[in-house]
Amino acid sequence: PLTDYLPLERAPKGLVITQYDMFSVEDMGLLKIDLLSQRSLAVLTDTVEEVSKQEGKRPPVDDLEAVFRDENTRQLIREGKTMGCFYIESPGMRQLLQKLKVDSFEGLTAASSIIRPGVAESGMMAEYIRRHHNKEKIIYLHPKLKELLGETYGVMVYQEDVLKVAHRLCGMSLGEADLLRRAMSGKLRSPEAMREVKERFLRSCHGQGLDPEVARKIWEQIKSFAGYAFCKAHSASFAQLSFRVAWLKAHYPAQFMAAVLSNGGGFYSPGAYIQEAKRMELKVLLPDVNRSQTPYTGRGNQIRIGLGAIKNLSQRSADSLLEARQARSFISLTDLIKRTTLGLKELETLIRCGALDGFGPTRPELLWQLLLSFPGIRGGGSPPLGIKGKLPYLPEYPLAKRCQIELETFGYMVSAHPLQLLKEHLPGLITASQLKGMVNQRVRMAGWVISSKRITTKKGKPMRYISMEDTTGDFEVVLFPNQYQIYAPSILGPGPYLIEGRVKEEWGTLTIVAQRIRGMGYGNPPQKRSVQIHPLWMITSPRSRGTP
Fold first, then answer.
1. How far apart are alpha carbons 280 and 242 in whole angstroms?
2. Which backbone phi and psi does 233 adopt, to 5 degrees?
């Protein structure tokens, strides 16, 4: 029993854990193993299984050489259109792919490592990009570095690079070099260990006759990232999975995006993946009691929202619906009520979100019918609220109302992009699709936040990178410290926002350097609550949810 060796406790999530940390557990003689859980492995498996079921054969995603050579996949990676793809979907990674024009397995392996914190923050990622585009101008700190690091332009990218340089250039034994790597790792790093390692490293360099300034610069590069860099095998295995899922996105986009959504997404919210699917010219269909499965499903150029995405619908009720449907499709609301265990609230949710649109009547008419029919079918009793008589004609919900219901039910809008509801209030703005022709020009844009990252400059001042989208595409916005200090309180929610700034280009990637930014809706309460001035605020405000 573990209790013979160490004390246990129950974690907040209910798991039984040790009260000792990792080092003490190992000191007690027990084995500690880190197992990385990666949902993209499930995305790969689910996409392959769905395609195999639909086409009767397994897609050739296991032929790695063919996958690496596939031009559609290479173009997708080169252009940074990798939302949903393991490890290469974040804004920073997508921009890096575009800057390096990555379209090979070897290039993706290197890119997967140089974006790690130590390399990026030390400035070596920027140096790697510069050398990639100016290979003829590379200056190596020492002639031997060209031999050791020629593949990566003289930049240490992998943990093995630290070992090679320390051993073959600086004269340390392989054992000493590995101790250097381990002593600098993120979990074991300490000021005392770093001082000892530095002294040993510089002594070894001196013994090899290296110029002290060269030795110091090599040490600074090693110190900046050795604890965070990948070993090359790790980076290569990541790149292999990235390439395989990118191949699936290029060739089976509907099945792939459905699997991404069913497995909880990745870097972005489900709503961002829905908009990405639309940009890929996929049609996103609302749930349907006769067609939806529990997960999202993709076929052809369509994605169908699954029953599992509907809030307030229990798994038991969804299973009841799917089991009853095996015998025959539902033909009416009354038929659905009779043959399932769905409760009144669940039926109301299904009606309001469009899952019963195939029955013919409008959603308000179906809600009226529900109130008329539900009590009698459940064992008698009069209709609530004194409702009697035949079904009246009631018009369908307007677009804004449908979007509000979708936001409540799924957590995102399907029938329209949030900015579509504001288009008459946003005349004369530049869209994401027009940015390529606006380099170094001042622009005004409207955007909806899909991700945001706050960082601190070397001078200790906060700034923020924001990824946004409009109805035509996504774009990047940066708020440098001066602007961030002014506008930080105004950018607390997803938007929408009105942005004014200048378009800057770096190695083929575009960024808007924001000079002004102000909220226009959700998360940014207006000074005057006027539906004419702030229609989306009224639609998506938490105060309005659940109201008739």
1. 19
2. -65, -40
